[in-house]
Each structure stands twice: as C-alpha cells, then as structure tokens.
Write a structure and sequence with these properties.
With 399 residues, this protein is mainly alpha-helical. The protein contains 18 helices and no strands. It has one domain. The chain starts with a helix and ends in a 23-residue tail after the last helix. The relative contact order is 0.11.
Length: 399
C-alpha cells in the first residue's frame, strides 16, 4: 500500500510538472508572437547584425545605421556574432528572437536551481511565465536585447560555481565579459574561491577574441576612443527609463554635487561589501561577491536600462534562499520592482532604482550577519561546498 501511494504521488508530481511547463511554454510562445507587432521589434538584434556585416565589409562595426540603435558592444562581440553576416537581416532577427526565448528559459531554470527547487521543477516553469510577461521581460523580448542572455550566463555561472565546475564558470564568465564588459564583476566569483588558473582563463577569452579582431578593424582604437565614451555618458540608454543615480538626478533636477556624492557613497559601500565578502574564511556568498558589485556599478555608472535588472535576478534568488524572513520580503519586493520597469513600465523608474538599493542592502545584511559568519567557519571541500549544512553558499543541486 505504501509503495502504491508513493507511486501515485510521483505520478501526480509528474503531471503537475508537465502541466506547468506546458502552460509556461505556451505563455512564452504567445509573447513571442505578440512582440512581433511592437514598433521596436528586433531593434537591438538588428544592430548586432549590422555590426557583424560592417565588420566584414568595412572593417568598422560601429558605422551608424539609420532606423535603430548603433552597435555598441566591444570588438570581441562583433567577432562572436560575425557569422550573422552570412544570413539575411530578416532571418537573423527571427534567430535573435529565438535566442532570447532560449535565454529566458535558461534564466528561469537557473533561478529555480538557485532557489533549491531544481531546474526542471514547476517553480522554474512559473518563473519563466512571470519573467516573460513582466514589463521588462516583454520589452527585452521585443528588442531581442542580449541582456537576457547575459542574465542566463550569470545565473548558470552561480549554479556551476556551487557545483564546483570551475572551468565551466571561467568559460561562461569569459563569454559574458566578451559581450558585455559591465559584468566583469562575475570574475570575482573565481577570485573568491582562489581559482586563479580559471580566473586567467576567464580573462584570456575576451582578450584573445579582441586581439583576433584587430586585423579586421580599420581603426582598432575606435571602440575605446569613440564608442565607449558615448556609452559611458548614458546617451545610448537615455534618462527616462534609466535607473542609475545619475539619471535620477537628471529627472528630478538634483544638484550635481549631491548626485556625485551619492554615487561615491554607493561605490564605497559596494567596495566595502565586496572586500568584506572576499576576506571571509571561507569567502562570503558567491552571489554577493559576483553580482552585488554589479548592482553597485549599475547605480554608479550613467549607462543603465531596465533590461540590466534581469542580470540581478540570480542575486535576488540566492539572497531569498539564504535570508531571514524580513530579507526575503525585501528581496522579493526588489525583484518585483526590477521586473515591473520597462517602456512603458508598470512602476516609475525610481522604484526600480530603489529595488537595486534594497538588493544591495540585503546583500550587506547577509554578508555582515554575525550568526551567518560563525556558521561559515567550518571545513570546506575543494569544490567549495561546506562539509556540513551551510546557510549561505547553497549546497550543490543535482536537479
């Protein structure tokens, strides 16, 4: 009788899982069809196609193209996407939408794994549905923005780190930085575990890709001298939906000295948080080290947009799992604010800024929690997983 009951429960669980995934995939497909009617559909992926084509035809991926945003990624990204020049624009835009859908699936499964439910669980399906129908998810899917791919890489980087797969961590960090240098802070995950050989590998990937692109470029210094200053000025992301402190000051007419003071304060607090986590024996939570620093940078620099908030969702997942009840409420609210911002957003952009600040505060609370520090001081295996129960670095998951 007991065996029959167990079998029945397993069957019910499988049916629930399949039903949840069927509903989530249906939502994803409906959203994919829906965003094709948006005026901005495929804008970002078209810029990627133009960058790849102009790299081969003119040796300059940064030639402005009328009708959509210019290519603003580093030369290494242009080389990675150079095969796009072999297909026509319309086909590549569809491929970009498909890539974004796969990235949405990958992010949801990584979040579920970080939360301890396993990557195939009904929770992963629910997270997929929630993220794709959210304001920022709808906008990012419509633009086919690469931020979703970077967020998925960040999420699975943390999962791989918690399973001790350090070469895979290095490869994913290297690829992410080669596309978007802003996530260079993910390399701190390797530094936190003293994986210096893998850190060298991670740094070598974007370096080699950029060096390999130099012979193809008409002006190898163009990205540094012309493109990067424009990106860092915030002109490529604007002010209206920009959650950075600089944009908040622009929207509300704050004094420049106050804005600079706030940016300096956040930068100092972020640096203190990261150093404190790195100096732990064993080091503090990997998400705090790798992504809380990214959150601080997003507030400090002028270039920011709602889709960047997707990259912080893995941090929110880890903090939610290891935090106390008040921390969980704060983190869940912050994640909701990140998902609700877009063009147009469900909430004002300033609420998203507050959400990033709350994530930083939650990471600081977890890092400096005296009781958690005491629990962290126990033997650690080579893989980075503690010998006994640990509340902060999540035990490796097999699902």
């Amino acid at each position: 009788m007991a065996n029959a009951d167990d079998t029945a429960r397993r069957l019910r669980g499988r049916w629930v899982t399949w039903a949840a995934w069927a509903a989530a995939v249906a939502v994803l497909l409906v959203q994919a069809v829906r965003v094709r009617s948006f005026w901005y559909y495929g804008t970002d992926i078209e810029a990627t196609w133009d960058g790849a084509r102009n790299l081969w035809q003119h040796g300059d991926p940064y030639i402005p193209v009328a009708g959509h945003s210019p290519f603003v990624y580093p030369p290494s990204a242009a080389l990675l996407f150079s095969p796009a020049a072999l297909v026509e624009n319309r086909l590549f835009v569809l491929c970009g939408l498909a890539l974004t859908m796969v990235a949405a699936l990958a992010l949801a499964t990584s979040l579920s794994s970080l939360l301890g439910a396993g990557w195939r669980s009904p929770l992963a399906a629910a997270l997929l549905a929630v993220t794709v129908v959210s304001s920022v998810g709808t906008e990012t899917l419509g633009y086919s923005n690469l931020s979703w791919s970077i967020a998925a890489l960040a999420g699975w980087t943390l999962v791989a780190a918690q399973r001790g797969r350090w070469v895979l961590v290095a490869v994913m960090v290297g690829l992410a930085v080669a596309i978007k240098p802003m996530v260079v802070t993910l390399g701190l995950v390797l530094l936190a575990r003293r994986r210096f050989r893998e850190l060298v590998l991670a740094a070598a990937i974007p370096l080699v890709l950029n060096l390999a692109t130099i012979p193809l470029l008409r002006d190898p210094a163009d990205f540094v001298t012309r493109v990067l200053p424009r990106v860092l000025s915030g002109s490529t992301t604007g002010v209206g939906s920009n959650p950075s402190i600089w944009a908040v000051g622009q929207r509300h007419g704050l004094e420049a000295s106050l804005v600079w003071g706030l940016r300096g304060l956040v930068l100092a607090a972020t640096a203190l948080l990261v150093v404190a986590a790195l100096l732990r024996r064993p080091p503090g939570d990997l998400a705090t080290v790798g992504l809380a620093s990214a959150a601080g940078l997003m507030l400090v620099v002028q270039v920011n947009q709602p889709s960047y908030g997707l990259v912080l969702l893995p941090l929110a997942a880890v903090l939610f799992r290891v935090g106390t009840a008040p921390v969980r409420v704060a983190v869940a609210s912050a994640a909701g604010a990140l998902l609700a911002c877009g063009t147009p957003g469900w909430v004002p952009t300033d609420v998203t800024t507050l959400g990033v600040v709350v994530l930083l505060a939650a990471a600081a609370f977890v890092t400096f929690d005296v009781r958690a520090v005491a629990r962290d001081h126990q033997p650690v295996h080579e893989s980075g997983a503690a010998a006994g129960p640990v509340s902060r670095d999540i035990a490796p998951q097999t699902g």
